[in-house]
Specification:
CATH class of the largest domain: Alpha Beta
Strand order of the largest sheet: 3-2-1-4-5
Largest sheet: 5 strands, mixed
Order of helices and strands: EEEEHEHEEEHHEHEH
CATH superfamily of the largest domain: ATPase, nucleotide binding domain
Number of helices: 6
CATH architecture of the largest domain: 2-Layer Sandwich
């Protein structure tokens, strides 16, 4: 049984994977890592994180409870060709997603993660990571609209009935949703101009489903892409260790 942990700025996502199958998933707030609880026998653990202080907390918790030292993923051990000089600046979650997209869906590819920030990543036809783009997430845009105006309420994020809103809430939903969808379509068009029109577009993250419902540019919605990527990386590293032992 593999424990896969993805530590993001807002949420920690924890998956239990048995024989390449995700059997359970838990999502908790990153600032509430004390709630991380996993039952069962573990054979291994792997962590990707963009929050270093939480990496240490959760790693120690796994070691104390299960006697297993988790693999901490970095650009150095991820097994992905990165066509950039400043490799250490890339969010590790973006690279993990790229590993999963390459293995599961092929390349060239555009990978979009709708999280606290929305990230666009590019893989060329050889499967090399080329870089991407980062913008504010839809929830952040919604929150700022509410916080910086006197009369606009905090609204739920969902697809509006019409582009032309008949009241304040529907007008806000239209602007947020369709404005964001059109931005996503525009970015995909720009990426495909470099990667080729055959590039597959894979979306992940908490808001991937709702955004995909408004665009035809997204080919695949895979909310578990990061956990799948962690599983792929761990299995590859484990197989490499076994091969090295046999070669001795």
């Amino acid at each position: 049984m593999l424990l896969a942990v993805d530590i993001g700025n807002t949420n920690i996502v924890i998956g239990l994977i048995n024989k390449n199958r995700l059997i359970s998933k838990q999502r908790i707030l990153t600032n509430n890592s004390a709630r991380v609880k996993v039952r069962g026998r573990l054979d291994g653990a792997i962590i990707s994180s963009v929050v270093p202080r939480q990496t240490k907390v959760i790693s120690r918790k796994i070691e104390r409870r299960y006697g297993i030292k988790p693999v901490i993923v970095s650009w150095k051990n991820i097994g992905l060709k990165i066509a950039l000089k400043k490799k250490g600046q890339i969010g590790i979650d973006r690279l993990v997603n790229a590993v999963a997209a390459k293995r599961l869906y092929g390349s060239p590819a555009v990978i979009i993660d709708f999280g606290t920030a929305t990230t666009f990543c590019a893989l060329d036809r050889k499967g090399r990571y080329l870089g991407g783009a980062i913008t504010s997430g839809l929830a952040i845009s919604r929150d700022v609209l509410h916080e910086r105006t006197a009369k606009l309420p905090l609204i739920g994020i969902k697809k509006p009935k019409n582009a032309i809103g008949q009241d304040t809430i529907e007008a806000m939903r239209s602007g947020l949703f369709y404005g964001y969808v059109d931005m996503v379509d525009g970015m995909i068009k720009r990426f495909k101009a470099k990667l080729g029109l055959r590039a597959k577009v894979i979306a992940t993250g908490g808001l991937s489903g709702i955004i995909a419902s408004g665009t035809k540019s997204i080919n695949v919605v895979d909310p578990d892409l990061t956990l799948k990527g962690l599983n792929i990386i761990y299995r590859k590293m484990r197989d490499a260790r076994f091969a090295a032992r046999r070669a001795r």
